[in-house]
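Let's sit down with a protein and look at its sequence and fold side by side. We need material for that, and I hope you will provide a protein of your own picking. Once you have written the record down, we can walk along the chain together.

***
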Amino acid sequence: MDSYNVVFRKSSSHQLRKLPVDVIKRIAVRIDQLENNPFPHGSEQLKIHRKPPIYRIRVGDYRILYNVDTSTKTVTIFAVGHRREIYRA
């Protein structure tokens, strides 16, 4: 299986850096796993209507929101945060 390129939006990179170090480490492990499998066990497509679709991974009380472009083999992380705040737009 070909690996995917994981890229961060500038805003998601800032969100990640604001989190506690132990949480960053756990989230980093899950993000690294997206390189080999962008649709891991536990990932869900959000029910909002958007193209491309948005997927979510849970990491404890934190969430990683991303989309996948299979044609360019790119995973774009566009939000990382606590479940209480991550879905507010």
Remarks:
- The first helix runs from residue 10 to 17.
- The beta strands are 5-8, 44-45, 55-59, 62-69, 74-82.
